[in-house]
Write a structure and sequence with these properties.
This protein is an alpha/beta fold. The protein has eight helices and 14 strands. It folds into two domains: 53 residues; 270 residues, Metallo-dependent phosphatases (Purple Acid Phosphatase, chain A, domain 2, 4-Layer Sandwich), CATH 3.60.21.10.
């Protein structure tokens, strides 16, 4: 009797189990298909995001020497830093990044140059107010070269304070004479750029710059930009040694050279299809004793991740005796 009942139930159990197994199979297929569609959609979105960066243009503006002590500090305390930047605020804000030479440390030390006698030792010792870092950021100067002959005016402690103040205001830097941060990498719209420094006043500066160019090449960057601090002050033409150095840096892999230190605009040169600006002159400085030191050059580059071609535009500025720098 039990066997007969089992024989009747067994086909039904087999059908039921088969239906359950079929249902589980289709459910797993649906889940797999859903997961596959999800992954495909995520890949498509990632590709679209990547492709959306292609061809997008970036604008970077290079400015010359920035010195915010001495008379500029006096004016800033009297009229505010916004007054100093008012004449260039528009051209600074129109770029994705502004890069300049920070001609001195940012510390909590009191100024020794304010009110000092022209030509005296203290007249050439610079320190900038701690609020300067925030003021630079506010005016879109978010990357600075610190490889120059004034960054150590207040020694290792002044350098450490400078780096801390810059970092706290989200300003990047390169050319660190302490060798802790020699190269800055900047990413935007699918482009990866490396910024390297050559400091004539640093021991083995040329060798270090050449090594850093090679290091940057290994980082798979699109362009290497060398910001230099070199040459002879107030001389409008670079000498043969500086030109030889510049050519060597290009031969090594630099794609653009921007120069500072002479405090006057020097000549430019195209070498192997790449531009060399030997000196942009002053951007913010209190050197009003000659027309040459009151003239500065800013260089804007435009490029995109599609063809990576550098397009250059030059904008001249004038440093006025009231402490302002204005577009010419």
């Amino acid at each position: 009797m039990k066997n007969k009942q089992l024989q009747k139930i067994l086909p039904m159990l087999i059908i039921l189990v088969s239906l359950v197994l079929i249902g589980l199979f289709f459910a797993s297929q649906k889940i797999a298909s859903s997961e596959s569609e999800k992954l495909a959609k995520e890949r498509e979105q990632a590709t679209q995001a990547e492709n959306s960066d292609l061809g997008k243009q970036v604008k970077i503006l290079f400015v010359g020497d920035i010195m915010l002590d001495r008379y500029i500090r006096h004016i800033s305390e009297k009229k505010g830093v916004d007054f100093v930047f008012a004449g260039t605020q528009k051209i600074l804000s129109e770029n994705d990044l502004v890069v300049g030479n920070l001609e001195g440390p940012i510390t909590n030390n009191p100024s020794v140059s304010v009110g000092s006698e022209i030509g005296a030792h203290d007249n050439y010792i610079f320190t900038f107010d701690q609020n300067v870092a925030a003021d630079l950021w506010k005016n879109n100067i978010k990357l600075v070269n610190i490889g120059n002959n004034h960054i150590l005016n207040f020694g290792a402690d002044g350098l450490a304070q400078t780096k801390e103040n810059l970092s706290s205001s989200k300003i990047d830097y390169f050319g660190d004479p302490a060798d802790e941060k020699r190269i800055a990498i900047w990413n935007k719209n699918g482009l990866k750029l490396a910024f390297v420094n050559y400091n004539q006043f640093e021991k083995d500066g040329a060798a270090k710059a050449l090594d850093e160019i090679q290091s940057a090449k290994k980082m798979n960057v699109d362009k290497i930009i060398l910001y230099t601090h070199w040459g002879t002050e107030f001389v409008v033409d670079p000498d043969a040694k500086i030109k030889e150095l510049a050519h060597g840096f290009i031969d090594s892999g630099a794609d653009l050279i921007i120069g500072s230190h002479p405090h006057v605009i020097q000549s430019k040169e195209e070498y192997k299809g790449k531009m060399i600006y030997y000196s942009l002159g002053n951007f913010i400085f209190d050197q009003y004793f000659s027309p040459q030191t009151q003239q500065g050059l800013t260089v804007q580059i435009e490029l995109n991740s599609k063809d990576k071609k550098i397009i250059i535009k030059e904008i001249q500025v004038i440093l006025k005796p009231n402490g302002q720098t204005v577009k010419r």
